[in-house]
Amino acid sequence: MFTSQGPSLRELAVQALSSVEHGYDLLAPKFDRTPFRTPDRMLDAVEETLAQREGSFSDGLDLCCGTGAGLPMLRRLCRERVTGVDLSTGMLAEAARQHPEGVDLLRGDALALPEALTDSYDLAVSFGAFGHFLPAERPALFANVHRALRPGGVFAFPVGAPIPLSSPLGWAVAGFDAAMRVRNAVWRPPFVMYYRTFPLGPVRADLAAAGFGVETVPLEHFGYREDGSPRWRLLLARKSGPAG
């Protein structure tokens, strides 16, 4: 899973015993050489689907942007400002190094976005970050995104099909989540990262409660499961009101 240029087992262990913020500060210089970075194939699929369905946007926000894998996509989709927000100063430093022009980078908590971002964006995206939010935090998360969007703005992110618990991968992610719960019960500070706490049904309900209209479209690039359901969907949560 990891290249020789990626983090060592010891470095991963130190990260796992840190807070989320400090852990990612430590991991930042090698983050893009881990399997945790959003694959380009996913970014390309999301970009193509958004471009076909929505066209271009004026201003874009990458929530929990990390080292900035999604920022080039936003720059191509958005005509004006692109902003990346993340809690980790280390990850933002890497994003600044890789994307020195055309992007505003802000340190901030997705659960408490700065008031200055209110009604500022037509598109918000996020990749691979939702495991860092407990289910009870979703209403605050979605309310912050709703506030940052202009009327008619879209919050877009990919959602994978449920992983059967009977599969090897299902056992692996369930085991990881169980280990993290034990770790957080006995060690401080907590490191919140779970794989099975973002199911589509409750997420849709929380988005609707925050004032979004919600639809999903298949990401055709990843094909379909045996039951005919898409392996990946793009969720589009739209703030009510006409687009600006």
From TrEMBL:
Q: Which GO terms describe its molecular function?
A: methyltransferase activity
Q: Which Pfam families match?
A: Methyltransf_25
Descriptive protein name: Biotin biosynthesis protein BioC
The organism encoding this protein is Streptomyces lavendulae subsp. lavendulae
Q: Which domain of life is it from?
A: Bacteria
Q: Cross-referenced InterPro entries, in alphabetical order? A: Methyltransf_25, Methyltransf_Superfamily, SAM-dependent_MTases_sf
What PANTHER family does the record point to?
METHYLTRANSFERASE, N6-ADENOSINE-METHYLTRANSFERASE TMT1A
